[in-house]
Amino acid sequence: MIIFTDLDGSLLNHSDYSYYEALPALKKIRAADIPLVMCTSKTRNEVEVILGKMGLKEPFIVENGGGIFFPKNYRGFRIEKSIIIHDLKCIPLGMPYGMIRTFMDRFGPRFSIRGFGDMTEKEIAARTGLPLNMAAHAKAREFTEPFTIEHEGRIRFLEKTALEAGIKITRGGRFFHFIGCGNDKGEAVKLTKAVFERNKRKQELTIGLGDSLNDLPMLKQVDIPVLIPHPDGSYEDISLPNLIHAPFPGSKGWNETVLNILATFKRIEERGWKFSGNDRIEWKSLSRGRRTGSKSMRAPLAKKANVSGM
Length: 310
Ligand SMILES: [Mg+2]
Fold this sequence. Notes:
Shape: globular
CATH topology of the largest domain: Rossmann fold
Low-confidence stretches: 277-309
Strand content: 15-25%
Number of strands: 13
Bound molecules: magnesium ion
Radius of gyration: 19 Å
Mean pLDDT: 87
Order of helices and strands: EHEHEEEEHEHHEHEEHEHEEHHH
């Protein structure tokens, strides 16, 4: 089993970035030695701080699928097509940050855009609500660039210009993001799973947890997708087979759903079933149970723009 998870608004609360309420599930995951792969718009530095705080040494996917990082000598795995970056094995998928900045230097003034590279750590902290040290980590980018634009009406023109340079634009909760056309959270999840399966020579059951439309490519790749509601209790308008709706927003909903999945999985294992065929019924009943148990959290469904962590 591998658990893939988004951070902001999923494992971490949207407002205070806390994962305190997910500690019981995190403890179980660690005790069972289940890989917890963070898949986020955050940077390598930011994820390393969070993993360090949690006492985890696991692979992770940064900057919306820009790169996959594995700790060196992780479970004795052979990681093909990887390069060493800061003592980690990296499979780069996105456009190097320098190329995105070159594009911005050329077209930035024409469109009045400002990226993290143009902002001080203090400004990033003020705009994101992150503490100053974490704002510095958020500024240390390798594959993507969050930015603001003075006249939002001009974003369509900018989009066209960027595409010609192989860069796409996504809209986050707080910023627009320049992302290389090769960046894809779903592709990164698929590749990470393949590394596990090649090295362990067995199929892995995958779980994915996310709260936004930008998590959809990740949720599509996993066997058990979990949708975490927004802080107001509304869910992103996503429909997928086996989709479980977490009963609460942020770390609380993350915790309860992961504990439920692990308990159900344990029951299935104890009965000596393999996870296929009829077992699907088990997951579906779990999904229905969660939803009927949390009617107040289900309505209204609010369709939101493509929201990433920031
Ligand atoms: Mg999120």
